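FW: tagging you since you asked about this chain on Friday. Here's the raw sequence from the shared folder, copied in full. Didn't touch anything.
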Amino acid sequence: MVGRYRPYPEYKETRVDWLGEVPSHWKLVRIKEVAQVINGYPFDSKLFESLSGVPLVRIRDISSSRTEVRYKGYVPSEVLISNDDVLVGMDGDFNVAKWQGGEAALNQRVACVRASSRYLQNFIFYMLPFNMKVVNDLTYFTTVKHLSSVDILKTCFALPPEKELGCIVDFVECEVARIDTLLERQQQLVALLVEKRQALISHAVTKGLNAHAKMQDSGVEWLGEVPEAWTVCRIKQVAKLESGHTPDKKIAAYWVDCDIPWVSLNDSAQLKEVDYISETAIYLNEKGIANSSARKLPERSVVFTRDASIGLAAITTKVMAVSQHVIAWICDKEKVVPEFLLLVFYAMKDELDRYTFGATLKTIGMPDVNKLTAAFPDVKEQNEIVDHVFKARDRLHLLIAESENAISLMKERRTALISAAITGKIDVRDWVTPAEITNNKEVAV
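HL: got it, structure written out here
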């Protein structure tokens, strides 16, 4: 970062870890000297409304432009906020955000930092996250993390002269806007690639690879038309359904010297990412299996979550057991390939969501599991489809990974640029906007 922009000629030590050295003419100040901190108010939750009243900003809302609830009772004028007020969440990760949702009321455990000028306000907005990161790191192992307004008021930072302050804020805002535009484009690309990946899978397991195949109406909404030669049936007709169980956790003997992988909701994060599962978060032993309804299932079973995140699936690579929140399908080798069934579950995402629409706790009951229906070509064609989809999907995975890496690098650059500017590691006093550069070129011509 410093290599592209020149540093200031002279620096001084601040003895503030996150600041380090700052330009010698900058002044060390605390927020209480240059801005006010407004505490939120303990509003009565009985008067929360969804449609009428004053928008009420809670911690969960600070990074949004709208609130989940409104307040229909009396609102003290001193806790009203407006656009560009800087908000700090006082619990959890102490997030910092700039409010853009219009006039609203500030709930307890959220603070507002308000300065006398736009430039100072925005400088504080860009500065605060770096100080809050230090606070977060220091309290990382604290069970319940709380921040007070006094902590915010004591925040120390280096303040440049007023004219210089304006140059720095203009520079940061322009560069951040440019990077954010690039970020948005990359994020849109990732979304399109993910959508294309899902469409690839869905088309392959419902329409096949032969564009000229004669089609028939499956009679199943999520399948639509399928090749005439395919068999439409319930999944349980091509794969044996097995449910799981949890051995009694009060009996210690069931949970020592365990070596049998046991797929549970603790493996959900892994199941979201992988096609094959080899290791699990928790293991069972033979005694636990013998004294419960859990049983060992053969390798190449297709496991499938039926609670919380519905339909997360993978193929086991060894003998495993499953919990009661997970089911397993043991494929009939003559009728279905485990990889094809896995792709079917990937394609069924919207169909599975339909079973749990509106439910607070997502779960799919065994009667609905028994009714799950798909279309199956012969095993030879299934293998051809699997081979095609896995290869095409790998190419898409590579493109997605490249885009996500670009996003990560841009976010790092964004953070580094802001840090360098607001701590004086780079001198942007002579910086001019792209518009000014363009105008100067036009005048020269």
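FW: Residues 162-207 form the longest helix (46 residues).
HL: agreed, and Residues 37 and 149 are 7 Å apart (CA to CA).
FW: great, closing this out.
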